[in-house]
Amino acid sequence: MKVFLKYMFWLLSFLMLTVYYLLSTQLGHKTMGYFLGEYLTKKTYNKIDVESFDLSRYPNLVIDMKVNNETKVQLMGKANVHEVDMDYQLKGEKYRWNNFLIDSPIDVQGHIKGLASNLEVNGKGEVFDGNATYSFIKVPNEFKNMKIALYDVESQKVLKFLKRRPLLRGRVNIISEFEIFSKYKKIGKSRVFMQKGFLPTFAPYVPFVLNSKIDFENVSYKFNGDIQSDIGNLVVNNAYYHKSQNIGGCDYDLKIKELSYFEEFLKGNYSGELNTEGKLEYKEKNFILEGVTDKFDGKLEYLYKDESLDLNLEGLSLVKIVQQFKYPSLLMAKVYGNVNYDLANKIILINTKLKETQFRETKMTNMISSATGINMLTDVYDDSSFVAGYQNKRLTSILKIDNGVNHLYLNDTVLNSETNSIDSKFEIKMQNEELFGEIYGTLENPSVSIDVKRLIKYQVEKKLGSFFGNSTKKKLKDELNQLRGFFK
Questions:
Q1: Within a domain: 487
Q2: Are 188 and 177 in contact (CB under 8 A)?
Protein backbone atom coordinates (compact mmCIF):
# COMPACT_ATOMS: atom_id res chain seq x y z
CA MET A 1 0.00 0.00 0.00
CA LYS A 2 2.80 2.41 0.84
CA VAL A 3 4.44 1.65 -2.51
CA PHE A 4 1.18 2.37 -4.35
CA LEU A 5 0.70 5.71 -2.56
CA LYS A 6 4.30 6.57 -3.29
CA TYR A 7 3.86 6.04 -7.02
CA MET A 8 0.55 7.92 -7.04
CA PHE A 9 2.25 10.86 -5.35
CA TRP A 10 5.00 10.90 -7.94
CA LEU A 11 2.46 10.60 -10.80
CA LEU A 12 0.34 13.49 -9.50
CA SER A 13 3.45 15.56 -8.97
CA PHE A 14 4.56 14.84 -12.55
CA LEU A 15 1.13 15.79 -13.93
CA MET A 16 1.09 19.01 -11.90
CA LEU A 17 4.56 19.90 -13.13
CA THR A 18 3.52 19.15 -16.72
CA VAL A 19 0.41 21.32 -16.39
CA TYR A 20 2.46 24.06 -14.79
CA TYR A 21 5.06 23.73 -17.57
CA LEU A 22 2.44 23.95 -20.29
CA LEU A 23 0.30 26.68 -18.75
CA SER A 24 2.77 28.88 -16.94
CA THR A 25 6.06 28.86 -18.86
CA GLN A 26 6.94 30.34 -22.25
CA LEU A 27 8.62 27.11 -23.29
CA GLY A 28 5.44 25.23 -22.36
CA HIS A 29 3.34 27.67 -24.37
CA LYS A 30 5.66 27.16 -27.34
CA THR A 31 5.33 23.39 -27.02
CA MET A 32 1.53 23.59 -26.92
CA GLY A 33 1.61 25.97 -29.88
CA TYR A 34 3.63 23.47 -31.87
CA PHE A 35 1.14 20.65 -31.21
CA LEU A 36 -1.79 23.01 -31.90
CA GLY A 37 -0.28 24.00 -35.24
CA GLU A 38 0.20 20.35 -36.19
CA TYR A 39 -3.40 19.60 -35.25
CA LEU A 40 -4.85 22.55 -37.18
CA THR A 41 -2.71 21.76 -40.25
CA LYS A 42 -4.08 18.22 -40.41
CA LYS A 43 -7.62 19.38 -39.66
CA THR A 44 -7.81 22.19 -42.23
CA TYR A 45 -5.42 20.91 -44.97
CA ASN A 46 -3.60 24.25 -44.80
CA LYS A 47 -0.13 24.87 -43.38
CA ILE A 48 -0.59 26.62 -40.04
CA ASP A 49 2.36 27.63 -37.87
CA VAL A 50 1.59 28.82 -34.33
CA GLU A 51 4.24 31.46 -33.67
CA SER A 52 3.13 32.29 -30.10
CA PHE A 53 0.58 30.84 -27.68
CA ASP A 54 -0.06 32.87 -24.48
CA LEU A 55 -1.97 31.02 -21.72
CA SER A 56 -0.88 33.28 -18.89
CA ARG A 57 -4.38 34.76 -18.55
CA TYR A 58 -6.30 31.57 -19.13
CA PRO A 59 -9.18 31.13 -20.03
CA ASN A 60 -8.30 34.21 -22.11
CA LEU A 61 -5.89 33.23 -24.88
CA VAL A 62 -3.67 35.11 -27.30
CA ILE A 63 -2.55 33.10 -30.35
CA ASP A 64 -0.37 34.36 -33.20
CA MET A 65 -0.27 32.17 -36.30
CA LYS A 66 0.92 32.22 -39.88
CA VAL A 67 -1.26 30.65 -42.57
CA ASN A 68 0.43 29.07 -45.60
CA ASN A 69 3.58 31.14 -44.97
CA GLU A 70 1.78 34.27 -46.21
CA THR A 71 -0.83 35.68 -43.83
CA LYS A 72 -0.47 36.52 -40.15
CA VAL A 73 -3.48 35.73 -37.94
CA GLN A 74 -3.98 36.82 -34.35
CA LEU A 75 -6.73 35.43 -32.08
CA MET A 76 -7.61 36.98 -28.71
CA GLY A 77 -10.35 35.75 -26.37
CA LYS A 78 -11.83 32.66 -24.80
CA ALA A 79 -11.67 29.24 -26.40
CA ASN A 80 -11.95 25.59 -25.48
CA VAL A 81 -12.47 22.34 -27.32
CA HIS A 82 -16.19 23.08 -27.72
CA GLU A 83 -16.60 26.78 -28.53
CA VAL A 84 -14.83 30.07 -29.07
CA ASP A 85 -15.49 33.72 -28.35
CA MET A 86 -12.56 35.61 -29.84
CA ASP A 87 -11.48 38.71 -31.75
CA TYR A 88 -9.24 38.13 -34.76
CA GLN A 89 -7.06 39.96 -37.27
CA LEU A 90 -5.77 38.76 -40.68
CA LYS A 91 -2.95 40.68 -42.31
CA GLY A 92 -0.63 39.89 -45.20
CA GLU A 93 0.48 40.61 -48.74
CA LYS A 94 -1.86 37.86 -49.91
CA TYR A 95 -4.25 35.32 -48.42
CA ARG A 96 -4.54 31.68 -49.46
CA TRP A 97 -6.98 29.15 -48.03
CA ASN A 98 -7.53 25.83 -49.80
CA ASN A 99 -8.43 26.75 -53.40
CA PHE A 100 -9.11 30.42 -52.67
CA LEU A 101 -6.46 33.04 -53.28
CA ILE A 102 -6.60 36.78 -52.68
CA ASP A 103 -3.48 37.84 -54.55
CA SER A 104 -3.29 41.35 -53.06
CA PRO A 105 -2.77 42.87 -49.58
CA ILE A 106 -5.40 42.05 -46.95
CA ASP A 107 -5.96 43.57 -43.52
CA VAL A 108 -9.26 42.65 -41.84
CA GLN A 109 -10.41 42.25 -38.26
CA GLY A 110 -13.57 40.98 -36.60
CA HIS A 111 -15.10 38.51 -34.16
CA ILE A 112 -15.87 34.77 -34.14
CA LYS A 113 -18.25 33.16 -31.69
CA GLY A 114 -19.99 29.85 -31.16
CA LEU A 115 -19.54 26.15 -31.62
CA ALA A 116 -17.40 24.73 -34.39
CA SER A 117 -20.59 23.38 -35.99
CA ASN A 118 -22.33 26.76 -35.80
CA LEU A 119 -19.76 29.54 -35.89
CA GLU A 120 -20.79 33.19 -36.20
CA VAL A 121 -18.25 35.37 -37.99
CA ASN A 122 -18.21 39.09 -38.77
CA GLY A 123 -15.55 41.54 -39.79
CA LYS A 124 -14.38 44.50 -41.80
CA GLY A 125 -11.19 45.87 -43.29
CA GLU A 126 -9.16 46.35 -46.43
CA VAL A 127 -9.19 43.88 -49.33
CA PHE A 128 -8.83 44.08 -53.15
CA ASP A 129 -7.38 47.58 -52.65
CA GLY A 130 -10.72 48.71 -51.21
CA ASN A 131 -12.92 48.19 -48.16
CA ALA A 132 -15.12 45.29 -47.08
CA THR A 133 -17.66 44.34 -44.43
CA TYR A 134 -19.02 40.83 -43.98
CA SER A 135 -20.91 38.49 -41.68
CA PHE A 136 -22.03 34.87 -41.91
CA ILE A 137 -22.73 31.69 -39.94
CA LYS A 138 -20.43 28.78 -40.78
CA VAL A 139 -22.04 25.36 -40.47
CA PRO A 140 -20.65 22.10 -41.85
CA ASN A 141 -20.23 22.28 -45.66
CA GLU A 142 -21.94 25.68 -46.14
CA PHE A 143 -22.51 29.27 -45.01
CA LYS A 144 -25.82 30.75 -43.85
CA ASN A 145 -27.09 34.33 -43.67
CA MET A 146 -24.04 35.58 -45.54
CA LYS A 147 -23.72 39.32 -46.16
CA ILE A 148 -20.72 40.72 -47.99
CA ALA A 149 -20.21 44.33 -49.10
CA LEU A 150 -17.19 45.39 -51.14
CA TYR A 151 -16.74 49.14 -51.57
CA ASP A 152 -14.50 50.81 -54.14
CA VAL A 153 -12.46 47.66 -54.83
CA GLU A 154 -10.39 46.90 -57.94
CA SER A 155 -12.61 44.96 -60.36
CA GLN A 156 -9.75 43.06 -62.03
CA LYS A 157 -8.53 41.74 -58.67
CA VAL A 158 -12.04 40.59 -57.78
CA LEU A 159 -12.39 38.85 -61.15
CA LYS A 160 -9.02 37.17 -60.66
CA PHE A 161 -10.15 35.91 -57.26
CA LEU A 162 -13.35 34.55 -58.86
CA LYS A 163 -11.23 32.96 -61.63
CA ARG A 164 -12.93 34.99 -64.35
CA ARG A 165 -11.49 36.82 -67.35
CA PRO A 166 -10.50 40.45 -66.52
CA LEU A 167 -13.06 42.02 -68.90
CA LEU A 168 -13.57 45.06 -66.65
CA ARG A 169 -11.17 47.64 -65.29
CA GLY A 170 -11.91 50.20 -62.59
CA ARG A 171 -13.39 50.51 -59.11
CA VAL A 172 -16.53 48.52 -58.33
CA ASN A 173 -19.06 48.16 -55.49
CA ILE A 174 -20.57 44.72 -54.84
CA ILE A 175 -23.38 44.13 -52.31
CA SER A 176 -24.34 40.47 -51.76
CA GLU A 177 -26.79 38.65 -49.48
CA PHE A 178 -27.16 34.87 -49.40
CA GLU A 179 -29.50 32.70 -47.35
CA ILE A 180 -27.30 29.70 -48.21
CA PHE A 181 -23.89 29.63 -49.87
CA SER A 182 -21.85 26.54 -50.74
CA LYS A 183 -20.22 24.90 -53.75
CA TYR A 184 -23.52 23.51 -55.00
CA LYS A 185 -26.07 25.69 -53.23
CA LYS A 186 -26.41 29.42 -53.68
CA ILE A 187 -29.64 31.20 -52.78
CA GLY A 188 -29.35 34.96 -52.71
CA LYS A 189 -28.73 38.09 -54.73
CA SER A 190 -26.00 40.56 -55.61
CA ARG A 191 -25.82 44.06 -56.97
CA VAL A 192 -22.82 45.33 -58.91
CA PHE A 193 -22.25 49.03 -59.51
CA MET A 194 -19.40 50.88 -61.23
CA GLN A 195 -19.35 54.66 -61.46
CA LYS A 196 -16.33 54.77 -63.76
CA GLY A 197 -15.43 51.51 -65.41
CA PHE A 198 -13.57 50.57 -68.60
CA LEU A 199 -13.68 47.71 -71.11
CA PRO A 200 -10.03 47.07 -72.10
CA THR A 201 -10.94 44.75 -74.99
CA PHE A 202 -13.55 47.02 -76.59
CA ALA A 203 -12.93 50.67 -75.72
CA PRO A 204 -10.07 50.94 -73.20
CA TYR A 205 -10.19 54.74 -72.80
CA VAL A 206 -13.95 55.40 -72.70
CA PRO A 207 -15.49 55.38 -69.19
CA PHE A 208 -18.90 53.86 -68.52
CA VAL A 209 -21.42 53.39 -65.70
CA LEU A 210 -22.42 49.79 -64.89
CA ASN A 211 -25.49 48.76 -62.91
CA SER A 212 -26.37 45.07 -62.59
CA LYS A 213 -28.50 42.77 -60.40
CA ILE A 214 -27.97 39.02 -60.10
CA ASP A 215 -30.31 36.45 -58.51
CA PHE A 216 -28.81 33.10 -57.47
CA GLU A 217 -30.92 29.99 -57.15
CA ASN A 218 -28.55 27.09 -56.56
CA VAL A 219 -26.86 26.44 -59.96
CA SER A 220 -29.20 28.77 -61.87
CA TYR A 221 -28.48 32.51 -62.17
CA LYS A 222 -30.73 35.29 -63.45
CA PHE A 223 -29.59 38.85 -64.01
CA ASN A 224 -30.32 42.21 -65.61
CA GLY A 225 -27.96 45.08 -66.22
CA ASP A 226 -27.04 48.09 -68.27
CA ILE A 227 -23.92 49.94 -69.36
CA GLN A 228 -24.16 53.68 -70.07
CA SER A 229 -21.38 55.71 -71.71
CA ASP A 230 -20.76 58.68 -73.99
CA ILE A 231 -20.31 56.40 -77.01
CA GLY A 232 -23.28 54.11 -76.46
CA ASN A 233 -25.54 52.09 -74.19
CA LEU A 234 -26.14 48.38 -73.64
CA VAL A 235 -29.18 47.00 -71.81
CA VAL A 236 -29.37 43.29 -70.94
CA ASN A 237 -32.69 41.78 -69.78
CA ASN A 238 -33.99 38.31 -68.94
CA ALA A 239 -30.46 36.98 -68.75
CA TYR A 240 -29.90 33.51 -67.33
CA TYR A 241 -27.16 30.95 -66.86
CA HIS A 242 -27.47 27.32 -65.70
CA LYS A 243 -24.12 26.18 -64.35
CA SER A 244 -24.61 22.40 -64.41
CA GLN A 245 -26.10 22.41 -67.93
CA ASN A 246 -23.67 25.13 -69.10
CA ILE A 247 -26.36 27.02 -71.00
CA GLY A 248 -27.39 30.67 -70.90
CA GLY A 249 -28.87 33.55 -72.82
CA CYS A 250 -30.31 37.06 -72.70
CA ASP A 251 -32.23 39.77 -74.53
CA TYR A 252 -30.16 42.80 -75.47
CA ASP A 253 -30.61 46.33 -76.74
CA LEU A 254 -27.44 47.98 -78.04
CA LYS A 255 -27.04 51.58 -79.14
CA ILE A 256 -23.61 52.74 -80.36
CA LYS A 257 -23.13 56.39 -81.26
CA GLU A 258 -19.87 55.93 -83.18
CA LEU A 259 -18.49 52.59 -84.43
CA SER A 260 -15.00 53.98 -85.04
CA TYR A 261 -14.30 53.62 -81.28
CA PHE A 262 -14.40 49.84 -81.77
CA GLU A 263 -12.11 49.55 -84.80
CA GLU A 264 -9.47 47.59 -82.90
CA PHE A 265 -12.02 45.07 -81.63
CA LEU A 266 -13.96 44.80 -84.93
CA LYS A 267 -10.73 44.47 -86.95
CA GLY A 268 -11.93 46.95 -89.55
CA ASN A 269 -12.69 50.57 -90.35
CA TYR A 270 -16.31 51.26 -89.48
CA SER A 271 -18.13 54.47 -88.68
CA GLY A 272 -21.53 55.89 -87.79
CA GLU A 273 -24.30 54.84 -85.44
CA LEU A 274 -25.55 51.33 -84.73
CA ASN A 275 -28.89 50.57 -83.08
CA THR A 276 -29.70 46.89 -82.71
CA GLU A 277 -31.64 44.51 -80.49
CA GLY A 278 -32.03 40.75 -80.29
CA LYS A 279 -31.25 37.58 -78.36
CA LEU A 280 -28.11 35.75 -77.35
CA GLU A 281 -27.98 32.05 -76.46
CA TYR A 282 -25.09 29.97 -75.17
CA LYS A 283 -25.13 26.18 -75.32
CA GLU A 284 -22.36 23.60 -75.24
CA LYS A 285 -19.66 26.28 -75.74
CA ASN A 286 -21.45 27.62 -78.84
CA PHE A 287 -23.05 31.04 -79.25
CA ILE A 288 -26.25 31.77 -81.15
CA LEU A 289 -26.75 35.48 -81.79
CA GLU A 290 -29.77 36.91 -83.56
CA GLY A 291 -31.08 40.41 -83.92
CA VAL A 292 -32.22 43.25 -86.13
CA THR A 293 -30.91 46.74 -86.91
CA ASP A 294 -31.83 49.74 -89.05
CA LYS A 295 -28.16 50.63 -89.56
CA PHE A 296 -28.45 51.11 -93.35
CA ASP A 297 -31.86 52.82 -93.53
CA GLY A 298 -33.64 49.50 -93.90
CA LYS A 299 -34.17 46.30 -91.95
CA LEU A 300 -31.15 44.05 -91.46
CA GLU A 301 -31.76 40.75 -89.67
CA TYR A 302 -28.77 38.66 -88.62
CA LEU A 303 -28.20 35.19 -87.21
CA TYR A 304 -24.83 33.88 -86.04
CA LYS A 305 -24.64 30.13 -85.44
CA ASP A 306 -21.98 27.43 -85.82
CA GLU A 307 -19.37 29.89 -87.13
CA SER A 308 -21.76 31.07 -89.84
CA LEU A 309 -23.41 34.50 -90.16
CA ASP A 310 -26.65 34.81 -92.14
CA LEU A 311 -27.95 38.27 -93.07
CA ASN A 312 -31.42 39.04 -94.40
CA LEU A 313 -31.64 42.44 -96.12
CA GLU A 314 -34.90 44.33 -96.56
CA GLY A 315 -34.67 47.71 -98.27
CA LEU A 316 -31.13 48.63 -97.21
CA SER A 317 -29.40 51.64 -98.74
CA LEU A 318 -26.72 50.42 -101.15
CA VAL A 319 -24.90 53.74 -100.87
CA LYS A 320 -24.55 53.45 -97.10
CA ILE A 321 -23.47 49.81 -97.29
CA VAL A 322 -20.72 50.54 -99.82
CA GLN A 323 -19.58 53.67 -97.97
CA GLN A 324 -19.31 51.66 -94.75
CA PHE A 325 -16.59 49.55 -96.39
CA LYS A 326 -14.81 52.59 -97.87
CA TYR A 327 -15.70 51.74 -101.47
CA PRO A 328 -16.96 54.30 -104.02
CA SER A 329 -20.64 53.85 -104.82
CA LEU A 330 -21.69 53.64 -108.50
CA LEU A 331 -25.41 53.20 -107.73
CA MET A 332 -28.23 54.24 -105.50
CA ALA A 333 -30.61 51.36 -104.67
CA LYS A 334 -32.62 49.54 -102.05
CA VAL A 335 -31.21 46.08 -101.44
CA TYR A 336 -33.25 42.93 -100.76
CA GLY A 337 -31.91 39.40 -100.35
CA ASN A 338 -29.46 37.46 -98.22
CA VAL A 339 -25.78 37.17 -97.43
CA ASN A 340 -24.00 34.17 -95.90
CA TYR A 341 -20.59 34.50 -94.27
CA ASP A 342 -18.69 31.31 -93.45
CA LEU A 343 -16.34 32.64 -90.77
CA ALA A 344 -14.30 29.45 -90.47
CA ASN A 345 -13.34 29.44 -94.15
CA LYS A 346 -13.75 33.22 -94.70
CA ILE A 347 -16.18 32.77 -97.60
CA ILE A 348 -19.01 35.20 -98.35
CA LEU A 349 -21.94 34.43 -100.69
CA ILE A 350 -24.29 37.26 -101.77
CA ASN A 351 -27.64 36.89 -103.55
CA THR A 352 -29.64 40.12 -103.75
CA LYS A 353 -32.24 42.05 -105.72
CA LEU A 354 -31.97 45.81 -106.26
CA LYS A 355 -35.01 48.09 -106.34
CA GLU A 356 -35.38 51.80 -107.14
CA THR A 357 -31.91 51.64 -108.68
CA GLN A 358 -30.33 54.77 -110.14
CA PHE A 359 -26.83 55.60 -111.31
CA ARG A 360 -24.80 58.17 -109.41
CA GLU A 361 -22.58 60.70 -111.15
CA THR A 362 -19.10 59.15 -111.28
CA LYS A 363 -16.07 59.14 -113.58
CA MET A 364 -17.53 56.16 -115.40
CA THR A 365 -20.94 57.76 -116.10
CA ASN A 366 -19.27 61.00 -117.21
CA MET A 367 -16.96 59.18 -119.64
CA ILE A 368 -19.85 57.20 -121.12
CA SER A 369 -21.93 60.36 -121.47
CA SER A 370 -19.14 62.24 -123.27
CA ALA A 371 -18.38 59.32 -125.59
CA THR A 372 -21.93 58.36 -126.55
CA GLY A 373 -24.26 61.07 -125.36
CA ILE A 374 -26.01 58.58 -123.05
CA ASN A 375 -27.32 60.19 -119.85
CA MET A 376 -27.23 57.31 -117.37
CA LEU A 377 -28.63 59.37 -114.50
CA THR A 378 -32.22 59.66 -115.72
CA ASP A 379 -33.73 56.16 -115.56
CA VAL A 380 -34.91 54.10 -112.57
CA TYR A 381 -34.36 50.31 -112.66
CA ASP A 382 -36.48 47.89 -110.62
CA ASP A 383 -35.49 44.57 -112.21
CA SER A 384 -31.89 44.41 -111.05
CA SER A 385 -29.72 41.92 -109.17
CA PHE A 386 -26.30 41.49 -107.62
CA VAL A 387 -24.75 38.05 -107.10
CA ALA A 388 -21.25 37.66 -105.69
CA GLY A 389 -18.78 35.50 -103.84
CA TYR A 390 -15.82 36.55 -101.68
CA GLN A 391 -12.76 34.51 -100.75
CA ASN A 392 -9.04 35.20 -100.33
CA LYS A 393 -9.58 38.98 -100.53
CA ARG A 394 -11.24 38.67 -103.96
CA LEU A 395 -14.86 39.57 -104.66
CA THR A 396 -16.22 38.04 -107.89
CA SER A 397 -19.63 39.32 -108.95
CA ILE A 398 -22.30 39.81 -111.61
CA LEU A 399 -24.32 43.02 -111.52
CA LYS A 400 -27.41 43.39 -113.72
CA ILE A 401 -29.17 46.74 -113.85
CA ASP A 402 -32.39 46.35 -115.86
CA ASN A 403 -35.85 47.86 -116.21
CA GLY A 404 -37.07 45.85 -119.19
CA VAL A 405 -36.11 48.55 -121.72
CA ASN A 406 -32.62 49.68 -120.81
CA HIS A 407 -29.90 47.80 -118.99
CA LEU A 408 -26.32 47.73 -117.80
CA TYR A 409 -24.50 44.50 -117.02
CA LEU A 410 -21.18 44.26 -115.18
CA ASN A 411 -20.04 40.70 -115.87
CA ASP A 412 -17.04 38.79 -114.56
CA THR A 413 -16.23 41.58 -112.11
CA VAL A 414 -13.29 41.02 -109.76
CA LEU A 415 -12.55 43.35 -106.86
CA ASN A 416 -9.28 42.71 -105.08
CA SER A 417 -9.13 44.29 -101.62
CA GLU A 418 -5.44 43.46 -101.24
CA THR A 419 -4.40 45.37 -104.40
CA ASN A 420 -7.41 47.73 -104.23
CA SER A 421 -8.17 47.01 -107.89
CA ILE A 422 -11.15 46.32 -110.14
CA ASP A 423 -11.48 44.37 -113.38
CA SER A 424 -14.87 44.07 -115.09
CA LYS A 425 -16.64 43.80 -118.45
CA PHE A 426 -19.70 45.92 -119.08
CA GLU A 427 -22.60 45.96 -121.49
CA ILE A 428 -24.92 48.96 -121.81
CA LYS A 429 -28.13 49.45 -123.72
CA MET A 430 -29.68 52.85 -123.04
CA GLN A 431 -31.53 55.52 -124.98
CA ASN A 432 -31.25 53.53 -128.23
CA GLU A 433 -27.50 53.22 -127.76
CA GLU A 434 -25.38 50.11 -127.16
CA LEU A 435 -21.96 50.11 -125.59
CA PHE A 436 -19.43 47.41 -124.63
CA GLY A 437 -16.16 47.70 -122.78
CA GLU A 438 -14.06 47.10 -119.68
CA ILE A 439 -13.45 48.77 -116.33
CA TYR A 440 -10.03 48.35 -114.76
CA GLY A 441 -7.55 50.03 -112.42
CA THR A 442 -7.94 51.15 -108.83
CA LEU A 443 -11.24 51.46 -106.99
CA GLU A 444 -10.67 55.15 -106.27
CA ASN A 445 -9.72 56.05 -109.85
CA PRO A 446 -10.88 53.33 -112.28
CA SER A 447 -10.30 53.50 -116.02
CA VAL A 448 -12.94 52.76 -118.66
CA SER A 449 -12.13 51.17 -122.03
CA ILE A 450 -14.83 51.14 -124.76
CA ASP A 451 -14.93 48.47 -127.49
CA VAL A 452 -14.62 50.88 -130.44
CA LYS A 453 -15.13 48.20 -133.15
CA ARG A 454 -18.48 47.15 -131.75
CA LEU A 455 -19.44 50.77 -131.18
CA ILE A 456 -18.66 51.72 -134.84
CA LYS A 457 -20.49 48.65 -136.14
CA TYR A 458 -23.52 49.45 -134.04
CA GLN A 459 -23.49 53.12 -135.09
CA VAL A 460 -23.17 52.21 -138.83
CA GLU A 461 -26.02 49.74 -138.62
CA LYS A 462 -28.13 52.26 -136.79
CA LYS A 463 -27.41 54.98 -139.41
CA LEU A 464 -28.16 52.58 -142.29
CA GLY A 465 -31.36 51.54 -140.66
CA SER A 466 -32.33 55.15 -140.20
CA PHE A 467 -31.40 56.04 -143.84
CA PHE A 468 -33.15 53.18 -145.62
CA GLY A 469 -36.00 52.76 -143.19
CA ASN A 470 -37.05 49.65 -141.42
CA SER A 471 -38.59 47.96 -144.51
CA THR A 472 -35.48 48.50 -146.66
CA LYS A 473 -33.28 47.26 -143.81
CA LYS A 474 -35.40 44.10 -143.59
CA LYS A 475 -35.12 43.58 -147.34
CA LEU A 476 -31.34 43.87 -147.22
CA LYS A 477 -31.17 41.33 -144.41
CA ASP A 478 -33.35 38.86 -146.37
CA GLU A 479 -31.14 39.18 -149.45
CA LEU A 480 -28.04 38.67 -147.32
CA ASN A 481 -29.51 35.50 -145.87
CA GLN A 482 -30.28 34.19 -149.38
CA LEU A 483 -26.69 34.76 -150.44
CA ARG A 484 -25.45 32.96 -147.36
CA GLY A 485 -27.66 30.04 -148.27
CA PHE A 486 -26.30 29.99 -151.83
CA PHE A 487 -22.70 29.71 -150.73
CA LYS A 488 -23.35 26.92 -148.24
A1: no
A2: yes
